[in-house]
TrEMBL record, chains A, B:
One of its GO terms (biological process) is negative regulation of mitochondrial fusion. This is Vesicle amine transport 1. Residues 1-51, 390-469 are annotated as: Disordered. CDD domains: MDR3. Residues 36-47 have a biased composition (Low complexity). Residues 66-393 form the Enoyl reductase (ER) domain. GO terms for cellular component: mitochondrial outer membrane. PANTHER family: SYNAPTIC VESICLE MEMBRANE PROTEIN VAT-1 HOMOLOG, SYNAPTIC VESICLE MEMBRANE PROTEIN VAT-1 HOMOLOG-LIKE.
Length: 469, 469
């Protein structure tokens, strides 16, 4: 199963309440037999037929576009068949990415329509190999990069989308590495052509790409890193290598950069889009490179916010060549999700990154690990920018006692949902009012909202983590 | 005198018919004395006062925007004063650039309003040094890069704008090198980040930048160079390193490239602008870089062609970030003329280029050398794309007999001017008609024009060269 085949496979899956021993599921239907070709794969011959019939696994499924609750845990049946060149991976840990949040709201066109299993990266162990696979074997520990379909216990992917996990790297680190580090690497060293003594602006410096970019900048001599993050994260990002931490919530980052670097910057990584792209362009030095790789400004609230989307479109940066020529500037766009045809390029980047890992020069930072059942809370924490480092999901089953806790929380969530609905409606009104205000002030409604919210949330996360231990 | 001071200096100059011994000029006015500061420079003390008064030199002056005849040879009086950090260079050879052609038509905003001396590069010998100049001395052979003001026998420039000519490099090569090679170098290795096995499209591969870019591409392992030029130049550019020569006049270069490189190209250097920039963008591979560095398509005819300009503006490439992101593409603009504040960057590039020259890896190719009196013919040859390599001007006085020949030609030119006027008018009409035609066909009117013209022109050039020898 390549990522593209995932939706078809889900049609075989039975949507049911998640159980710890789903093999006991009484309503088991006979699994549809795979094609003759698939049945002939080594995977099929090494497994006994009865096991194939009873083979089940848990998978997160995006059931429709919308809020955090649209990603549901389901149990699927039937062992996925392997085509030539593919491997079956028993997934241990999955990475969360900003594109997953966009995808849930229907803002990311690289994810097929729901129902579909999201997930662009994971780590795990090879459990079966298809024909023509020569460089992977059963038992290999691998990290996986795919367009989607990796947030499940079992994933079938082309062997070329897997990378061997080096000695000493945990499954958590391995799941945190591919998307963020390849993204940061290609932006800085391919488009950015980063060289000694240059200056770089890293937005969201405490996020996954931000931390990866900072570490990669530090592999080049005398690079100055400007990093934006809220004040509470400054200690962490400074320790991580940021030279000048800027609190974008209380200060104008453009002014702060100009104070230190009046001529501007050599490289700006822009995950925000909208009016921030304009600011970035004006902050470039001659021969400077602006690399835009997202539109985080489009995400406001847990459901698609049409005003935020429209505003982002309205402010979308568009550039004439004459301006580029007169400024001696470069504008680049990057998104790993659109680069899946370029596995050679990606593999080269990955090999360099793994060498840097082995030399101790880069190391993924994990913010927190969540059970599959908690994916909604994990997504919320990420979207509200309360993480420092990578958000990851583990496929480890949740202990029974923890589940009871979750059930209680679920009840609370129902209440909260109603509350949120109200707030979302309020926000839409605010959004309309805000529309005519200065861009500078756009962070404020979010902040107000957070004052009421995240404490509860944070407490819950703390509990969750304690219980995990 | 930095380039910026040139116009002021020209106010001191007396416009007069050019003579071989202009010191005998009878109408000599007393030179205006320079400021006290300038008079105190070492240059002033090393020269005797009488020489200062009689100091004259020939200079090309753009007297107004328009055709080839707008650049006139004048004699200037009064020795230019040196400020701290400046040197006075006795100019031997000057380089012609496309920007000079644009400037003559009033299409290049880095040249001050006429009257002004054009010229962005030259080679010569240091004749005097100002205060605080420590790294240049009288007698040094140098090449010079300046925003303008170098098409004259004597130029005063900041010492930082001069580069020592290495042993074995002729003044001709030295005048041909700075603009084309620094432009090609920064485009390919800074914005382009050229690496082994990549593919590059070089338009106008027989032009100055084209030849420099091709040579620089060949310094990187296994780079494939696609070069466009008219068929008669294919042998020359192939010998110069172009892997696939494409005759853009008879073939669609996009189709030709796709035949060989179906996925597209890694780097495209675009001096054309307009609709060719759109084509280039679509020809990029993922992670490809489009570097646009001119708008040669704006030049049609010897005077500003409003239709060509409007068309170029109308077709001007404008790009949204979302398209860049989804394509994983980069669009860069480059023009050395707007980079004059970045002498450190330029000096680094120049040092690398000179190292490559010493290693025999790059070598400027001279198309032809012209006397200052022949600048109009030289510009015409360049604009009509009849050159292979660099067009240069020498400040060597023209032999008397040759001058007589020139005088005869002048008479012919008068006739030709009338003829051209007619043609220009005709062209304007053609242009209007052409406006609605397909872009593909836009080269045709030029070709037709050439059928009648360049033979005579070529014969004249041949004569001129023979006479020079």
């Amino acid at each position: 199963m390549s990522g593209e085949d995932a939706p078809a496979q889900q049609q075989n899956a039975v949507d049911q309440k998640q159980e710890t021993k789903p093999a006991e599921e009484p309503k088991a239907e006979p699994p549809k037999t795979e094609s003759a070709e698939a049945a002939a794969t080594p995977a099929a011959t090494t497994e006994k037929a009865p096991e194939e019939e009873t083979f089940t696994y848990r998978a997160l499924v995006l059931t429709g576009y919308g809020g955090y609750d649209k990603v549901k845990l389901q149990v699927k049946k039937g062992k996925p068949a392997l085509k030539a060149g593919e491997v079956l991976v028993r997934v241990k840990v999955c990475g969360l990415n900003f594109a997953d949040l966009m995808a849930r709201q229907g803002l990311y066109d690289r994810l097929p329509s729901p129902p579909v299993t999201p997930g662009m990266e994971c780590s795990g162990v090879v459990e079966a190999v298809g024909e023509e696979v020569t460089d992977r074997k059963v038992g290999d520990k691998v990290m996986v990069l795919n367009r989607f379909g990796l947030w499940q216990e079992v994933a079938v992917v082309p062997a070329s989308h897997t990378f061997l996990i080096p000695d000493g790297m945990s499954f958590e680190e391995a799941a945190a590495l591919p998307v963020n580090y390849i993204t940061a690497y290609l932006m800085l060293f391919d488009f950015g052509n980063l060289r000694p003594n240059q200056s770089v602006l890293v937005h969201a410096a405490a996020g996954g790409v931000g931390i990866a970019a900072t570490q990669l900048c530090k592999t080049v001599k005398d690079v100055t890193v400007f990093g934006t993050a809220s004040a509470s994260k400054h200690e962490a990002i400074s320790q991580g290598g940021v030279t000048h931490a800027i609190d974008y919530r209380t200060k104008d980052y453009v002014e702060e950069v100009r104070k230190i670097s009046p001529k501007g910057l050599d490289i700006i990584l822009d995950p925000l889009g909208g009016s921030d792209t304009h600011k970035a362009y004006n902050l470039l030095k001659p021969m400077g490179k602006l690399i835009t790789y997202g539109a985080a400004n489009m995400l406001a609230g847990q459901r698609k916010n049409l005003i935020a989307v429209a505003k982002n479109w309205y402010h979308q940066f568009s550039i004439h060549t004459l301006s580029l020529i007169q400024g001696n500037k470069s504008v680049c766009g990057f998104h790993l999700g659109y680069l899946d045809g370029e596995m050679e390029l990606i593999t080269q980047a990955m090999n360099t990154i793994l060498d840097l890992y082995k030399q101790g020069k880069v190391k993924p930072r994990i913010d927190s690990t969540w059970h599959l059942e908690q994916v909604g809370d994990a997504m919320r924490k990420m979207q509200e920018r309360n993480n420092i480092g990578k958000m990851i999901l583990t496929t480890e089953p949740m202990p029974e006692e923890e589940k009871k806790e979750e059930a209680k929380k679920e009840d609370k969530k129902e209440d909260k949902k109603k509350e949120e609905k109200k707030k979302d409606d309020k926000k839409k009104d605010d959004g309309k009012k805000e529309e005519k205000k200065d861009d500078k002030k756009k962070e404020e409604p979010k902040k107000e909202e957070k004052k009421e919210e995240p404490k509860k949330e944070e407490e819950k996360n703390e509990e969750a983590k304690k219980e995990e231990k």
